[in-house]
Every structure is written in C-alpha cells, then in structure tokens.
Write a structure and sequence with these properties.
Blueprint lengths: L6 E12 L11 E16 L10 E5 L7 E8 L6 E6 L11 H17 L7 E7 L4 E2 L7 E3 L2 E3 L8 E2 L4 H17 L10 H19 L6 H8 L2 E4 L17 H10 L7 E3 L9 E9 L7 H11 L1 H24 L5 H19 L6 H11 L4 E5 L8 E7 L2 H16 L3 E10 L4 E3 L13
Parallel strand pairs: 3-6
Antiparallel strand pairs: 1-2, 1-17, 2-6, 2-11, 2-16, 3-4, 4-5, 7-10, 8-9, 11-12, 13-15, 13-16, 14-15
Helix pairs in contact: 1-2, 1-3, 1-5, 2-3, 2-4, 3-4, 3-5, 6-7, 6-8, 7-8
The protein binds adenosine-5'-triphosphate and (3R)-3-hydroxy-3-methyl-5-(phosphonooxy)pentanoic acid.
The site of (3R)-3-hydroxy-3-methyl-5-(phosphonooxy)pentanoic acid (PMV) has 13 residues, from loops.
C-alpha cells in the first residue's frame, strides 16, 4: 500500500517595520511584513500495521543535530485536555526540551480533542526551516538538499537572525497538526474562520511557551502575512491555565472558537510593498542584544508618563505617514518618512537609555541610504545591534551595489550580510506534501 503524502503547512517569518514598543499599548498599531523565509511543518502517520498501538508523536528537526523529541500523550481527567510528556528515549531522541514544540503540540491536541471524537493516531512531525532564520557558520561547507540546508549543529550552538522562528514554527506546527487530524469541515486554512482559529490557538500556545504575553505581532504575521496589527488585551489569556489542569479543554476551546473574546485588529490590505520595490534585511554580526530592552522602555514610560506619551504619539504619527506612503505607491517623500521615524526612535532610545538605534546602526543606515536605489530603512522591532531592514528598488543593479557596499563595510570591521529573504504578503499556507524529497523519513 502506498504511503499517503504528508500534511504540510508553512508559515512566514516577520520583519517589524514600524511600531516597535508602541504596539505593546492598544492605543497604537504596528506595520509588520511577512517574509519569504518560511518554516514548514509536515505530519505523517506512523505505520502501526504490526499491531502496536503506541500513543506517541515523534517530532524532528533534521537540519539540526540532537533535534528529535518523542512525546507521549493522554487525555487528562476532569476536562484537563491532552497532556504531553517528553519521553527520554534512546538516541536520536534528545534530552533537552523544546518548549515551543511541546506547548504547540499540547494545545493543538487539546483543541482537537475538544471538537472531535476521532482517535489521535501516532505520527511523525518534521520541521524544516529556510536558511535565513539562522546565521550560517562561515567556514563550514553545508549541504543543501531539496531546498533546505543541513546546518550540522545542535540548537544550543545556533545563532538566530531574529526573523521570528518561534512564531512561524508554532503557527505552521499548529496548522499542520489541526489539518492532519481534523476534517476540512472542522478546520480549513483557506476559510476566514479557519484562519481566525489558527491565529487564536497559535497566539495562546506561543505566549504560553514564551512564558510572557508579548504584543503577538509575530504570530499575526505568521498567520496573515503582512498586515497592520493592533494587539489583543493581555487579560484575554490570563485564565487559560495549564494543559492537564481541570477544565483546560473547555477553556481552550472557548478561547479559540469565540471570536468575540478577542479584540485584536489585523488588516492585511493596509500593509503594502510598493511595486518595483523590495524589503530586504541585513544580518549584523555585531555583539548581542540587551534582553531587557522592553522592561527599560517601560521603566521610562512609568517615570515620565506625559513626556513618553507625547513622544509615542508623535512617533505613531510618523509611522502612519510611512504606511500611507507605502500604500499609495507614490514614493516621493519616503526617504524623509524613514528619517523622521528614526529621529524619534533615537530620541526614545536616549530617553529610556536603550540602544534601540545604536550609533553603529545609525552609521550603517546612513551609509546605505546614500546608495542609489535604497529609499531608506530602520532597525526593526525592538531595535539593537542584530539587523536592519531596507526598502530598495527591486532590481539586480541595486542589490549588487548593496552587496558590494556591505562587503566593504564587512572588510573594515562589522560583519554585515544581505539575507536572501524579502518581504512578502502571504501568510500561512498549505504546501504540497510530496515536494520535500529526502527530508521525509518515509521516503528515505
Ligand atoms: N527549526 C526549528 N526546529 C525546532 N525548533 C525551532 C526551530 N526554529 C526555532 N525553534 C524554536 O524556537 C526557539 C527560538 O525562538 P525565539 O523566540 O528565541 O527566536 P525567534 O522567534 O527566531 O527570534 P525573534 O523573536 O528575536 O524574532 C528555539 O530555541 C527553538 O525552541
Ligand atoms: C518591542 C516589541 O514591540 C517588538 C519586538 O520585536 P522583535 O522581536 O525585535 O522583532 C515587543 C512586542 O511587540 O512584543
């Protein structure tokens, strides 16, 4: 009997162009773009024809070493939902846990159990990520097969580029598991209702795995692609509880299915990349980012509520002006719009004593914006030293000149690299499960 193709879903990474920090407050919205860099999640049934009835799901990330996680699952008493246990199996199963995978699995299986009587059969889940999510070791010769690179590294040794791998992973994982176990009438990624459910479930799982409630812009972009985003009130997720706790199944099902519980606003039509242009990203290898940036900005906001509100209002006005220019497609004034945003971001950084646009990044952005065909750019999201994003003319000559400028800059100190990924409009989507060739174990 031939093996059915894997259920495959992919979700994009993100670049946060305008509205970092402000978006944590529902008074402001954010301009976020999805990226062509995607994470793909494939689900295949495990053959139990030998009569063995396992309750086991194996998750593997075969581009990395020691990246196989085995999970047992069981329906907990008192409507506690599906409890997932990380099994310490023999190698290749890894002993270190992956909170994003584990939580996404428990949340997805619990939601499935809340709306379906069907048995959850054993399965193998494969995660494949675009190269751009991780900085590649400079000396190593890496093997790429069927479009994905074997990084030959353990997760602990990987440097991420900050494209939102965890949000893309949780979204694609949740979508793939729901699509695999539910019928199209119970869940379909192509319907508006299905997307809403995927968003709500992935948002809840991602916050739980992170151990904090962020604005959720990264999950919104992973589900809907480029959009103007206003966050949900954090209180919505306060009483969901833990998988296994009494009533978790009912609470999660209501959270996912009751659209009126949520107050986020997601508008994919108002985030536009003008025709003939591209949003590109440069990975900057220049020291690490301060982890407590958000906390420090909040300390400043508390200490100076009036001043910080006035600055945020002005920055928001400038963010909206950029969004309007991009939407109009008429790029006159776009360079000034980027500069105006950066001016206020630097002021916010000085006032809060946070390197949102540190001086090294100011120099880099100023230098690159002088290039023919580069309209402007910013330090995305929370800012810091890790990356910059540029709006450029989408042609070979501009990209070649940009690469040349970056290699000159790299030769004189800071290592800066143009990533292959570009801004893209589309969110999570169903993929053809037969196109992953050698990465699928059933076909090895
Ligand atoms: N290919 C993958 N396979 C399995 N787990 C992954 C994969 N990629 C990322 N993850 C999980 O996501 C974690 C990284 O998430 P984190 O939120 O720290 O980074 P990010 O989302 O890429 O970055 P940022 O939020 O700065 O944009 C990893 O430690 C791992 O648990
Ligand atoms: C600072 C913040 O507004 C954006 C962080 O963005 P990034 O992870 O740096 O892309 C935090 C958030 O929105 O959750």
């Amino acid at each position: 009997m031939s093996t059915p193709p894997a259920t495959a879903i992919s979700a994009p990474g993100k670049v946060f162009l305008a509205g970092g920090y402000l978006v944590l407050d529902r008074a402001y919205n954010a301009l976020v773009f999805g990226l062509s860099a995607r994470i793909h999640v494939l689900v295949e049934d495990i053959d139990t024809s030998s009569g063995v009835q396992l309750s086991e799901i194996v998750v593997q990330s075969p581009q990395f070493r020691e990246a196989t996680w085995n999970y047992g699952y069981r329906l907990a008493d008192e409507q506690g939902g599906v409890e997932v246990t990380h099994l310490q199996g023999s190698p290749p199963a890894t002993s270190s846990r992956n909170p994003f995978v584990e939580t996404a699995l428990a949340y997805a299986l619990t939601y499935i159990a809340s709306i379906s009587e069907a048995r959850i059969s054993p399965a193998k889940v494969t995660i494949l990520a675009d190269d751009d999510y991780y900085s590649q070791p400079t000396q190593a010769t890496l093997v790429t097969k069927d479009n994905f690179t074997d990084f030959n590294l353990r997760f602990a040794d990987v440097h991420k580029t900050g494209l939102g791998s965890s949000a893309a992973l949780v979204t694609a994982f949740t979508g793939a598991v729901l699509s695999h176990y539910l019928t199209p009438s119970q869940f379909s990624l192509t319907s508006a209702e299905g997307r809403t459910k995927l968003h709500n479930l992935a948002q809840a799982a991602h916050c739980a795995a992170q151990g904090k409630v962020g604005s959720g812009f990264d999950v919104a972009a992973a589900v809907y692609g480029s959009c103007v985003y206003r966050r949900f009130s954090p209180s919505i997720l306060e009483s969901t509880g833990e998988p296994g706790s009494a009533g978790f199944l009912t609470r999660l099902q209501q959270l996912v299915d009751s659209a009126d519980k949520w107050d986020y606003e997601i508008d994919p039509d108002s985030a536009t990349i003008p025709s003939g242009t591209a949003l590109v990203m440069c990975d900057v290898d220049c020291g690490s980012q301060t982890v407590s940036m958000v906390k420090k900005v909040q300390v400043w906001q508390k200490a100076d509520p009036v001043g910080s509100r006035a600055l945020s209002d002005e920055l928001h006005k400038r963010n909206r002006a950029l969004a309007t220019i991009l939407e109009s497609g008429d790029l006159s004034g776009v360079t000034e719009a980027f500069a105006a945003i950066r001016e206020k971001i630097r002021e916010m950084g000085q006032k809060s004593d946070v390197p949102i646009e540190p001086v090294e990044q100011t120099e880099l952005l100023d230098t690159l914006t002088k290039n023919e065909g580069v309209f402007g750019g910013v330090v995305p999201g929370a800012g810091g030293y890790d990356a910059i994003v540029l709006l450029v003319k989408n042609d070979e000559a501009t990209l070649a000149a940009l690469k040349e400028s970056l290699s000159k800059i790299s030769a004189s100190g800071t290592n800066v690299k143009l990533l292959k990924t570009k801004g893209e409009m589309e969110g999570a989507r169903t993929e053809d499960g037969t196109k992953y060739g050698q990465w699928l174990t059933n076909q090895c």
